[in-house]
Amino acid sequence: MIAFGSSNRLVYHPAPEGHPERPDRIRAIAAAMRAAHLIDSPNPFTAFRIDLGPMPQAGRKLLELPEPEPAEERWLTAVHTLEHVRRIKHACEIGGGVLDQGDTVVGPRSYEVAITAVGTALSCCDAVMDGRARRAFAAVRPPGHHAEPEQAMGFCLFNNIAIAGRYLQAAHRVERIAIVDFDVHHGNGTQAAFEDDDRVLFISLHQDPSTCYPGTGNPWETGNGRGDGFTLNIPFDPGSGDAEYLNAFDQVVVPRLDAFAPEFLLISAGFDAHHDDPLAQIELSEVCFGQMTQRLVAVAERHGGGRIVSLLEGGYNLRSLGRSVVRHLIAMQDSPGGA
After folding, report:
1. First and final CA of the chain: distance in angstroms?
2. Global model pTM greater than 0.85
3. Which residues are catalytically annotated?
4. Which residues on adjacent β-strands are paired with residue 309?
5. Whole-angstrom Cα distance, residue 78 to residue 70?
6. CA 141 – CA 65 distance, rounded (Å)
7. Of 64, 165, 240, 245, which residue has the fewest beta carbons closer than 10 angstroms?
């Protein structure tokens, strides 16, 4: 069984006119999942319309998880400083504002939304660990992988996937966790959270940092101290596409994961490497997201009982975002043990 976690509250994190990380991202994913027969819950966004085109069809429905509880502060501070948490909360309490160089904004309800996003990630981890589901996907916003322990940046307030990793370690005693990030932008915040931890293998595939935000993720960034060798950055030249990514999976990513033998696999599932996405210059097809997912599921089956939690990161063309998420979820279903 594949579980799905999200919340209608996630649309209450605002976005200025023209901002790519907008509430319609969640609406587009919900519409695409319904069109693919992955979920059949009533549409809470009845005024939202999107032309998705012919949709691939899922063989089975997902297990829709209950409305998540907001994450407790103790889980936020497992990754972030208390000062960082309080700074974001205060900014929202006084009505909102801009937290970094101009692209990470908050409104009055953004703190509530952000801790709901984290809570959704944790509920997905619980569903997999307690056996209700084999794998789970959390459609959440704001995204998280750029948020560093002391800094919000790149649309991200709290690092959802890093907090999920610390939660799995502390609450579920998982010893070896792998995080694979295929968002087109380097997961600098996730790298910072685990760069000295040899229990977490972090692999990021992203556009070359000399050509793309945030300017980190070079191959020589491999971790620090006991974590040296447990960070693997794989940058791609602008214009790279399916062939280059799948070759990297087959020649580098999968062998490194097999050598590490993770007990649990987390995916930072950004869909902004799609050829229609406006924020970068990688040329992946929606089919490729499914093919990468199939390879990751096979690794999880070999080493961790198939256990995966995937969290939404980027993806800013609404049509390609919805369609790519569907490919990702069908691949999680159709791979071995996906029923």
Report:
1. 5
2. yes
3. 146
4. 136, 266
5. 15
6. 17
7. 64
**What angle, rounded to 10 degrees, do the helices at 24-35 and 318-334 form?**
50
Look up residue 70 and give its two tokens.
């907001």
Q: Rounded to whole angstroms, how far apart are CA atoms 224 and 216?
A: 15
The pLDDT of residue 24 is above 60: yes
- What is the C-alpha separation between 151 and 143, in angstroms, rounded? 14
